[in-house]
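Question (not urgent): is this output format expected?
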Amino acid sequence: MPRVDAPLTKAAIYVYYGDHAPPHFHVVGPDTDVLIDLRTLQVMRGKYTRQALAEAIAWAADNLTVLWSEWRRCNERD
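Got this back:
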């Protein structure tokens, strides 16, 4: 599970290999373990602190190209 190089202080962002659809990323940290839909940046499921979620969504909104590239790299289907 590659960690995305995001300068977050409250959590880390991961994209897992061979993960299920729809395209998404994981935000993991103390009291935070949530899946975020790449298409909408909405919470799919999980628990989170408001600070960790806000920080991750703000970074993701500015770095969608990075996240989509990582999703494709980790989840190419033949």
